[in-house]
Amino acid sequence: MALFSFEKLEVWQKSRELVRGIYVLLQSFPVHEQYTLCSQMRRSAISITSNLAEGCGRSSDKDRARFYDIAMGSLFELFAQLQLSCDFGYESDEQLATLRAECEVIGKMISGLKNALKKRMDR
Question: pTM for this one?
């Protein structure tokens, strides 16, 4: 496995795009949310890319799968926070729908990685 092979993963690239989108979105949030909801959303989004990368750096499929699970959990956490921010009026229903679609694509891709590892481990 090449060093930094995670950079070639389409799911990692899409996750990076999601992080950038989240950062842009958060610029419009109220100042009083900067250290609460905004901070948590940044951490959740970054956690997705970080855990995908860390999983690729692990030597066993079991370890890789664990980090992909963590990435998936962070994706779910981020989406829950996006829903809350919409509830609070910090983003529009249209923005939420766009971000939901991005999250669903990334979630399916992470599931695909996990399924491929599971098949390999079951052999």
Answer: 0.93
